Amino acid sequence: MIDIHPDQARTLAAIIDHGSFEAAASHLLVTASAVSQRVRALEVAVGRPVLRRTRPLELTSSGQAVVRFARQLDMLSADLAEELEPGTAESGPRLILVINSDSLHTWALTGLAAVAGSVQLEILREDQDYSLELLRSGAAAAAITTTAKPAPGCSSRRLGVMRYLPVCSPNFASRWFDAGVTAETLGAAPVLSYDRKDDLQDRYLRKISRKPLHPPRHYVPAASEFGEAIRLGMGWGLLPEIEIAADLEHRRLTALAPSSHVDVPLHWQQWRHGSAALDEVAAAVQDAAHVLR
CA nearest 185: which of 222, 160, 153, 216? Predict the structure, then answer.
């Protein structure tokens, strides 16, 4: 059985949080030599390296597991303190979550607001296809992701499906799609993407055409501004159905084609050995996700 000393695990987490052995030593109020000794002892206990001595420093897969252990230990310690001396903590435990911009913009904040009085939340924005890496590394305790299979040390539960509709402004449709929405017109009409990780529009294009299409492209990396850019006629793009019902009804936006959509399944993954606070947040997010398909 591998016996990991809590101080060693927390030291590794401090190195990652602060970027160097020296900065971790300053945070922990010990010498840099003591930090190095703890890391060496940790690697002996684990039987393999936990850090890659690169710039910046990187965790190995074993190091990621140790950092998750350190974070979970801190959460469980906070739970224990609250149980032993209820109400003595000045503020709730701090949790880091990874949530994609569209979920934040449309439905997730409702659930998070419900628990904001009992927990401190730090929300990292990341595309749902890339959020698991932050969970694996121990940087976050939970994430909304498109991956159903649990990451190492995590549990997974289905939230629902975000349906995206390809839309544009009426004037844009008149200019670019007067002859219909075809591979030819989609190859010429400007398209909007959130950032270079966003492939929703390309998924839709692949459904329309078997050959790659390379239309002119604008990048607008903010959920509210992305939708506004489409309404202003900068290009066409995919927006969450739950966001644009009123726009379609009042004809501020028009769908490119009837019944055309891209569905994105969403899952909530969190550390399997979490805390009461993390379970409370998970329940609130699950409840807020009832608006999804």
Answer: 216
